[in-house]
Structure formats: structure tokens, C-alpha cells
Write a structure and sequence with these properties.
This protein is of the alpha/beta class. It has a single domain, classed as 3-Layer(aba) Sandwich (Rossmann fold), CATH 3.40.50. The chain is 33% helix and 26% strand. The protein has 9 helices and 10 strands. The chain has a 6-stranded mixed sheet with strand order 6-7-8-3-9-10, sandwiched between helices. The chain is globular. Bound molecules: adenosine-5'-triphosphate (ATP). The site of adenosine-5'-triphosphate (ATP) has 11 residues, from strand 2 and helix 1.
Length: 242
Amino acid sequence: MSLLSVEDLVVRHGLLQAVRGVSFDVARGETLALVGANGAGKTTLLRAIAGAHQAASGRVTFDGADLSGVPSHERVRKGIALVPEGRRLFVQMTVEENLLLGRSADRAGDWSVERVLETFPNLKPRRHARAGHLSGGEQQATAIGRALMSNPDLLLLDEVSLGLSPLIVDRVYASLQELISSGTTIILVEQDLNRALSVSNKVICMLEGRIALAGDSMTVSRDEVTKAYFGLHRKGAGGVPA
Ligand SMILES: Nc1ncnc2c1ncn2[C@@H]1O[C@H](COP(=O)(O)OP(=O)(O)OP(=O)(O)O)[C@@H](O)[C@H]1O
């Protein structure tokens, strides 16, 4: 049975349909990369799964339970944790205090402040620093750590590399790789196609609110994804922009 099942989901911002009838499944232990151009609907889809944005129609089923009408804080209790774009840390609070907020879901599991600091060693010396004083990479690690502290079954990561230097992105991804190896189920939105394909088992490319391409990350070609990204696959156009 799938851990997450999304069926014909429609999500609106006012009159705009940002997600238009999207369906897919994620099995336990899988990593799904969501790619697509700006405005394709990736963030809106993640937020709808997390319950941060209400769907207009369709269904999200998690671990066999229909989540329709279930508010976001209840979804965290059920095991869905979102690391939002822009991190959204409490800047006046320390790293440790931000991490401990993840505990409010009160879910059983192995994640502790110590384990987060082991996973993200760059945070160790910053444990008592205010989040507002951290570098971008340290903030990102804190945001992921805070989500892990809820002992999630499903981790939703929205553009974790945004605004970070390539070196720091490498570090964040090295830590993510450990999470993936330990069996955490992840959906991640990533702009960098190579990174998205290398870290995931499955990839979905969104275009204007719809799934333009869904495939196996190992077998799908970069060209196919790039074409789907630009909507060239359905127009039958030949070349892929450089
Ligand atoms: N709060 C909002 N109010 C109105 N429209 C919105 C809102 N958030 C997103 N949109 C619109 O919904 C569509 C999907 O946006 P969304 O942020 O989900 O896309 P995305 O693929 O995550 O893009 P990005 O990479 O730019 O974050 C876009 O047309 C966007 O302008």
C-alpha cells in the first residue's frame, strides 16, 4: 500500500487553479522529486498535502486515512512534516529552541536535538545561537531539523537549496542522502534538475498545474524532463533550449 496517495487534486488561489487534477502515489521509503518552472504549482501542491492550503477537490490519503478536512497541525501529528520555502524560523529563538518546537507534535521516535546535531554537524557550535544570526545553510539545516524532530513518516522539502552557495547545498544534500538511506520518505521540490534526479527514485515534472511527466529517476532522460519542463513534449517540438 502507498504511504501517500494524491487523487485528482485541485487547489486554487482565488480564481486561479494552481493545481489541476493531479494524481500520484508515494510508497514508504521512496524519494519523489517535484520539478517544474516557476509557477508550475509545486509549492501549492506541497502545501495542500501538508494541509497548509485547502484543496478545492480531490483527495489526499495518508497511511490509509483520508485527510480531507484534517487541519495542518493534525497532519503533523499523523506524520507529515513540511519544510517550507524560506525556512520560516523563529529568528529570536535559538537553534535548540527552534528544534524543540518540532516536538509539539508529540510523536514517538528517535529524533532528538543531539541526533539533529549529529546529522547536521555545522549546527553543533551554533546550538545556542539565535536563528536570525545563522548563515543560510545553518538556517536550512535548522528548518529541516525542526521538521525531523516531529519524527515524520513523510518529509516535504520545498526548495531547500534556494539562496545557498553550491558548497552549502552539497552539505545539505549530503545530510539528506543520509536521511534517504535510513528509509525516510521524502517529497522534495528542487530547481536543480541534476540534483533532483540524482537524489530521487521517482520524478514528477509539473507544468501549469498539471503533471507533464512522471517517471523513474534512474531511467528517465534529462532531455525528456527538460522538454516536459518547457511544455515541448506535448507540442512535438524537436529541440531543447540550451
Ligand atoms: N498566495 C497566492 N495567491 C495567489 N496566487 C498564488 C499564490 N501562491 C501562488 N500563486 C500562484 O499559483 C501558481 C502556482 O504557484 P506555486 O508557488 O505553487 O508554483 P511553484 O511551482 O512552486 O513556483 P515557484 O518555484 O515560483 O515557487 C502561480 O501562478 C502563482 O502565481
